[in-house]
C-alpha cells in the first residue's frame, strides 16, 4: 500500500461505512479515529469516526496524519478534500430503502423526531446528492474510487475483500477482512 495516500471510506450515512472500516482495520490498516463515538445498539462494533473530519472545510491539517491510514467521511464532505493529497476512496452503496429504514430506526432509538422529512423527499435528496458527488468524483484527478455494494459485501465478503485489497495495492489480510463482516447486523433488509 502507498503510504502517501489517504484512504477514505465514504457513502451516505447508514450505508455500511462502519462495516467497511471494521474490515479494513481487521485486514491490517490503521484507522484514523478518536473513538469519541462509542459502540451502541446501532453500531455494536463502533463507528470508527474521527471528529476533525467534520471540520474539513476549515481544518485540513489532520490529513497529513491520515496518510497511509483509513478514515471515514460522509459523502457530503468529500468536496472539501484539498488536491494537495492523493486519495483512494471506497464508496459504499446501499439500497435507498435500507438506508432510510436504518436511519429512522437509529433516530427512534435516540428519541429523536423521524417525521421532519418524508422518506420520499429524503430519498429524492439523497439520490440527487449521489448523482452529483459521483459526477464530481469522476473529474478529480487526485482521487481513485472503488464503488462497493453493501449487499454484495455481505453475500461475498472474501471476493469483495480481494477487490479492496487489489484497489489499495495489496498487503491486507483478506481472510481477516472477510471475517469482520457480521451478517447479524444487516437488520434493515428490503
CATH topology: Rossmann fold
Name of the CATH architecture: 3-Layer(aba) Sandwich
The count of helical stretches stands at: 7
* Order of adjacent strands in the largest pleated sheet: 2-1-3-4
Helical content class: 25-40%
Q: Any idea what the shape is?
A: globular
Please report the distance between the alpha carbons of the first and last residues: 36 Å
Task: Please summarize the sheet with the most strands.
Answer: 4 strands, parallel
Mean pLDDT: 87
The count of domains is: 1
Structural class, from secondary structure content? alpha/beta
As a whole number of angstroms, the C-alpha radius of gyration is: 16 Å
Uncertain segments of ≥5 residues (pLDDT<50)? none
CATH superfamily: P-loop containing nucleotide triphosphate hydrolases
Question: What is the string of helix and strand elements?
Answer: EHHEEHHEHHH
The tally of strands reads 4
- Proportion of residues in β-strands: 5-15%
The CATH class: Alpha Beta
Q: Can you give me a brief rundown of this structure?
A:
The protein is 38% helix and 13% strand. The protein is α/β, with parallel strands linked by helices. It has one domain: Rossmann fold.
What does this structure look like?
It is a single chain. The protein is of the alpha/beta class. The protein has a single domain, classed as P-loop containing nucleotide triphosphate hydrolases (Rossmann fold), CATH 3.40.50.300. 38% of the residues lie in helices and 13% in strands. The chain is built from 7 helices and 4 strands, in the order E-H-H-E-E-H-H-E-H-H-H. It has a 4-stranded parallel β-sheet. The longest helix is centred in the last third of the chain and has 20 residues, at 119-138. The mean pLDDT is 87.
Amino acid at each position: 500500500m502507498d503510504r502517501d495516500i489517504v484512504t477514505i471510506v465514504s457513502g451516505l450515512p447508514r450505508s455500511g461505512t462502519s462495516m467497511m472500516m471494521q474490515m479494513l482495520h481487521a485486514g491490517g490498516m490503521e484507522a484514523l479515529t478518536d473513538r469519541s463515538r462509542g459502540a451502541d445498539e446501532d453500531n455494536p462494533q463502533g463507528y470508527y469516526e474521527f471528529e476533525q473530519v467534520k471540520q474539513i472545510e476549515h481544518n485540513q491539517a489532520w490529513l497529513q496524519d491520515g496518510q497511509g491510514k483509513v478514515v471515514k467521511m460522509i459523502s457530503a464532505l468529500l468536496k472539501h478534500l484539498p488536491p494537495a493529497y492523493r486519495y483512494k476512496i471506497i464508496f459504499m452503496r446501499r439500497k435507498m430503502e435500507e438506508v432510510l429504514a436504518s436511519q429512522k430506526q437509529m433516530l427512534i432509538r435516540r428519541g429523536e423526531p423521524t417525521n421532519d422529512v418524508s422518506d420520499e423527499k429524503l430519498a429524492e435528496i439523497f439520490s440527487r446528492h449521489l448523482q452529483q458527488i459521483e459526477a464530481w468524483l469522476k473529474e478529480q484527478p487526485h482521487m481513485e474510487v472503488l464503488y462497493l455494494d453493501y449487499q454484495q459485501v455481505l453475500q461475498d465478503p472474501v471476493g469483495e475483500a480481494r477487490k479492496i485489497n487489489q484497489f489499495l495495492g495489496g498487503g491486507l489480510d483478506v481472510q481477516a477482512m472477510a471475517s469482520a463482516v457480521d451478517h447479524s447486523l444487516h437488520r434493515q433488509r428490503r
